[in-house]
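I'd like us to work through together how a protein chain folds, taking it slowly. We need material for that, and I hope you will provide a protein of your own picking. Go ahead whenever you are ready, and we will take it from there:
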Amino acid sequence: MARDGNSKSASERAFLEIRDVTKKFGDFTALKDITLDIIDGELICFLGPSGCGKTTLLRAIAGLDFQTSGRIYQNGRDISDVPPADRDFGIVFQSYALFPNLTVAKNIAYGLVNRRMGRKAITERVEELLELVGLQGSGSKYPAALSGGQQQRVALARALATSPGMLLLDEPLSALDAKVREHLRHEMKDLQRRLGITTVMVTHDQEEALSMADRIVVMNHGIIEQVGTPMEIYRNPTSAYVADFIGSMNFLHGRMGTGGRVQVGRLKIALDGAGTEFTKGDDVVVCIRPEDVAVRELEQVRSNKYAMSVREVEFLGSFCRAILDVDGDKNAELIADFSINLMRDFDLKRGAKLKVALPTERLQAFRDDKRGEHI
C-alpha cells in the first residue's frame, strides 16, 4: 500500500516536515494544505504537469517564495520564516545559473569564498568536487567551453560545495538532450546514494521520476494526489488522474451491472473484489496497463477472455503496440504492448484475430465522473 504524506516506519526519520502549507497569489491558490514528511537521506520527486504546484512547493522549502500559511521544519528546526541564506540547502536550477565570467573552479568555490574559507581548503574542496562529478582537470575552463551535461555537473558540484543538509533540484535535466539526460540521471542518483544527502527534485518527466526517486509525490492543482514508491505509484494508482499521468493506461468507460461486472460496449468486465465500492448503475472507468493485456496461457485466467481483432500495429523497437477492438466497437478498444517474440509467435498483424484476457488482479476501477483533465 502506498504511504501517505505523514506515514513512516520507526526506522525512518523525517528530515523535512511540511505542515498544512498553503500558498496564494492573489485569488489564485497554488498550494492547498500540503502536509508531507521527507525522510532523511531519500530522493523524493515532486511530479506533475505545468501549473500543478510542484515548483511553488520547492520554492517554499527554499524560502524563495514564503508560504501564505503553514509551517516547514528542517531537522527539527522551524524554518518557515527563515530567509534562504540561513537555510541549510544547495540548489540546482534547470538553467545551470553558472557565472560565465568565472572559471569552473571559481564557480564551484563561490559559496566557500563567501564563507571565508581558507584558500588551501577551498582548492582542496574544489578538486574533491571536480573528481566527485567526473570533471577532473576542468577547473581552469569557462562554462562556455563545456557541454550542457558538463555545465550541469558544475552546477551540482557548486550546490554540494558547502556540504548542505539538503539538495534541491529544479528540473535539473530538462534542458539536456535525451541521451545526455538518461546518462546524467543515473550518475546523479548514484552520487546521491553515495553522499546520503536528502534530495528534493522537481520534474514533469515521469520516466525521470520512476528511475531516480525513492518516493514520488504526484501533484495536481496544488494538492497531493498520491505519495509512494515508483512501483506503488505505477502498479496501485489511487485515482484515475494518477493512473493516467504515470505510464500508458487503457481507460474503459462503462456502467456497473450485476455480479460485479462492468458493461463496456460489447464487453462485460468482471472486477471481482475491486468493484465492491460500486453499485448497479454507477458510471465506472476500468483501467489496465497495455503490458498487462494477456495473450499467453489464457487457460490460467478465469474470466475476462475476449475474441478481438488487431486494428493497427505500431513498431516501437523493442516491442509493438497494437490497437485491439471487438468488431470495430470503439467503446471496447484496447491498446496492448506485445514483445517482438510474441508478435512473431502469433503472427500478429493488421486484421489478425486473437484471444486476449484482462486479468482481474491487473485491473483498477474508479468512479467515472468524466471531469478528469486527462481522462
